[in-house]
């Protein structure tokens, strides 16, 4: 029986299976490779033709360096079913009883996870965007710091996962189950420099934004007071932009996948007053009008972000209310895209 396959090219393909079986395809023929174990293998993945990992029964992990397969210390006796990595120093393996292991280039170690469900597959688009799935429809997502649960909408056992990007992921499982994960079109998210979602900003901090689901092309980013445009449409006023007024709109380009990279849009002055306001971020296609069909909005009433109010008169500051010099907080409704669902 063969259970897993991976290749670095059409002339370098590996297949693994029962009784320690490891096969290699060179573009013409399949041939057996010498394996140091008779344990069954369930998954295989590599970062290159000289850096390949095979995982399987009783916590077995083998590594191929281009010449030989050798055993690695996994630290577990649980069966491992899936393996994937973003690089040779960032590899994940998943298996029985909620086992999730991580390899940092030096050693394998267990990761904290919120469930003991069995995992059958793992895949990611980057080191901070990894999906693991398995029994009872369980799906976890890793953001670079923590694993958290996602709503799958099924109780079927999920066996495999693959995606073309962070916003386009497929999962398959028992009973012919096929799930598809898609982030909303024209998604706009306020974030920190690393792309981690962030909704409250204080003096001296920089507001960043990223987006996905856009048509490829050039866009302008506007910051507008919350409510100045609705989620269905409205005229954008560049003089409202607290990052510098008219002419301060950043130009960004959505790539062929529809992604807008993490972009700084407002450096909040260190001496900004200790008040807070809600702002909307609009990614506009260049016509100066927000159109829900073509543009994107991070609306403060449901998403958006909270930051200090720039240069408001004293009586307005008093009316808004002091929030405390060291703390800026916004009471927000949960972002729609945070309730991530497969369908």
Descriptive tags:
343 residues, 1 helix, 29 strands, elongated, disordered C terminus
In this structure, how is the largest beta sheet organized? Answer: 5 strands, antiparallel
The radius of gyration is 24 Å
How many DSSP H or I helices? 1
Distance between the termini: 31 Å
Strand composition percent: over 45%
In round numbers, the mean pLDDT is 84
The outline comes out as elongated
Q: Outline the low-pLDDT stretches.
A: 310-341
How helical, in percent, are the residues? under 10%
Look at the helices and sheets and give the structural class: mainly beta
Task: Please count the beta strands (DSSP E, at least 2 residues each).
Answer: 29
Order of helices and strands: EEEEEEEEEEEEEEEEEEEEEEEEEEEEEH
Can you walk through the features of this model?
2% of the residues lie in helices and 46% in strands. The protein is built from 1 helix and 29 strands. Strands 22, 24, 26, 28 and 29 form a 5-stranded antiparallel β-sheet that branches. The chain is elongated, with a radius of gyration of 24 Å.
Question: What's this entry about, in short?
Answer:
With 343 residues, the protein is an all-beta fold.
Strand-helix topology:
Layout: E1 2-9, E2 12-17, E3 22-25, E4 30-32, E5 41-48, E6 51-56, E7 61-64, E8 69-72, E9 80-87, E10 90-95, E11 100-103, E12 108-110, E13 119-126, E14 129-134, E15 139-142, E16 147-150, E17 158-165, E18 168-173, E19 178-182, E20 187-191, E21 206-212, E22 217-225, E23 233-235, E24 250-254, E25 260-267, E26 277-284, E27 289-291, E28 296-298, E29 305-307, H1 314-320
Antiparallel strand pairs: 1-2, 2-3, 3-4, 5-6, 6-7, 7-8, 9-10, 10-11, 11-12, 13-14, 14-15, 15-16, 17-18, 18-19, 20-21, 21-25, 22-24, 22-26, 23-27, 26-28, 26-29
């Amino acid at each position: 029986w063969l259970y897993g396959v991976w290749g670095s090219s059409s002339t370098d393909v590996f297949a693994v299976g029962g009784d320690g079986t490891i096969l290699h395809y060179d573009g013409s023929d399949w041939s057996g490779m010498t394996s140091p174990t008779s344990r069954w293998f369930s998954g295989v993945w590599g970062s290159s033709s000289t850096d390949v990992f095979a995982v399987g029964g009783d916590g077995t992990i083998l590594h191929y360096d281009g010449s030989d397969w050798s055993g690695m210390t996994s630290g577990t006796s649980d069966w491992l079913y899936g393996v994937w990595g973003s690089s040779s120093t960032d590899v994940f393996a998943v298996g029985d009883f909620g086992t999730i292991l991580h390899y940092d280039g030096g050693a394998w170690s267990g990761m904290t996870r919120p469930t003991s469900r069995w995992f059958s597959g793992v895949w990611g688009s980057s080191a901070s965007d990894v999906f693991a799935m398995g029994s009872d429809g369980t799906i976890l997502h890793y953001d670079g710091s923590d694993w958290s649960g996602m709503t799958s909408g099924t109780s079927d056992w999920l066996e495999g996962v693959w995606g073309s990007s962070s916003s386009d992921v497929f999962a398959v499982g028992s009973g012919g189950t096929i799930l598809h994960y898609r982030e909303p079109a024209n998604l706009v998210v306020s974030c920190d420099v690393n792309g981690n979602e962030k909704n409250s900003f204080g003096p001296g901090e920089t507001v960043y934004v990223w987006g996905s689901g856009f048509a490829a092309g050039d866009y302008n980013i506007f910051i507008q007071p919350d409510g100045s445009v609705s989620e269905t449409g409205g005229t954008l006023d560049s003089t409202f932009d607290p990052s510098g007024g008219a002419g301060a709109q950043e130009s960004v380009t959505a790539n062929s996948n529809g992604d807008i990279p993490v972009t700084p849009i407002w450096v909040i002055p260190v001496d900004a007053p200790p008040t807070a306001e809600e702002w909307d971020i609009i990614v506009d296609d260049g016509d100066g009008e927000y159109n829900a069909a073509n543009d994107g909005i991070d609306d403060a009433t449901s998403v958006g972000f909270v930051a200090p109010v720039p240069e408001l008169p004293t009586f307005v500051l008093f009316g808004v209310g002091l929030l405390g010099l060291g703390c800026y907080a916004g009471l927000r409704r949960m972002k729609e895209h945070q309730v991530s669902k497969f369908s």
